[in-house]
Amino acid sequence: MAPASARPQHPARRRIDGVLLLDKPSGISSNAALQRAKRLYAAEKAGHTGTLDPLASGLLPLCFGDATKYAQALLDARKEYVAAIRFGIATTTGDAEGEALTECPVAFSRADLEGVLPRFIGAIRQVPPRHAALKHRGRSYYEYARAGVEIDRAPREIEIEAIEIVDWVPPVATLRVSCGKGTYIRVLAEDLGAAVGSCAHLAALRRTASGAFTIDAATPLAALEAIDDAEARDALLLPVETLVASMPRLDVDDRDANALLRGRALTAGENPPAPGRYRCHAPSRFLGMVDVADGFIRPLRMTRFEG
Fold first, then answer.
1. 128-172: pLDDT as tens digits
2. How far apart are CA 123 and CA 157, in angstroms?
3. What are phi and psi of 79, to 5 degrees?
4. For a Cys-Cys bond, which of 45, 199, 226, 229 suits 90, CB 3.0-4.6 Å?
């Protein structure tokens, strides 16, 4: 065994709070990207806000410390993608990682493709892919698929706000898709192939927006790893409250702030705010998320108490 002095030294984990807008490269999993960023920041706690497949690149917001408590806000948020759909070939997985399954003619025009897009806009039902992380009787869909076992995959309601053709160079269409949570772009690719009398798979995917965040503000993983100065890396972190910035704001004084951080409800007073959920602030800091109802202000998800 090597002496203790010869072993690689890892920086001590530290409490750090904030949101990093990461531009994930294709070829690695979201968790692998998260772990690399977590090591760079020597963070005690970190999580991401919605998985991107290894094939996909683009915006992957990472949460550190207290920010992990509000990750659900981005999990539920609208997403935007730029997708390259290759018509004429179906694959076993619905994307470029699978093996070619079927070849079909590509005998339609851009106008034909534009003509079928309205069918997929709005609230629609979509059958999840065989290779998905969804669970069936305690096992992931992809585990059954790899074992060659067919299971019932019930359609799920999703919402697609908009689809725009960015480019059309047969047999590849590049589309911009704005959609709600739970949307599988590779299934959309397959369904579009069928709608134009062909077949298709997802050749490439890039996430360009998640909620109010856009790829323009994201830092590529390679660039993050090239930063030697810890303060410069820390400067890339956005405040925790940016995750709930769309909520109405409620301000309280320091005494009430301490009560809320200790888990105590407050009376709403003579002129209470309207019922609902708020992002709550003390004079000097963000406190968390509270609920106003029945004459009380109740803590829901608060930042750590440091008193």
1. 776 656 555 666 656 655 666 666 667 789 999 999 999 999 999
2. 7
3. -120, 155
4. 199
In a domain, 3, yes or no: no
Asked, for residue 7, whether it belongs to a domain, the answer is: no
Q: Does a structural domain hold residue 307?
A: no
Map tokens 């009398």 to a residue. 197
Is the whole model's pTM more than 0.85, yes or no? Answer: yes
d(CA 222, CA 33): 10
Distances (CA, A) of 254 to 65, 111, 260, 302: 22, 61, 10, 15
| Active centre residues (catalytic) | 53
Q: What is the DSSP string of 216-246?
A: GG-EEHHHHHT---HHHHHTTPBPGGGGGTT
Which candidate, 80, 85, 23, places its Cα nearest to that of 208? 80
The number of domains in the chain is 3
The answer to whether residues 69 and 151 belong to one domain is no
* Judgement on whether residues 117 and 206 belong to the same structural domain of the protein: yes
Same domain, 204 and 130: yes
- Pair (146, 68) in one structural domain: no
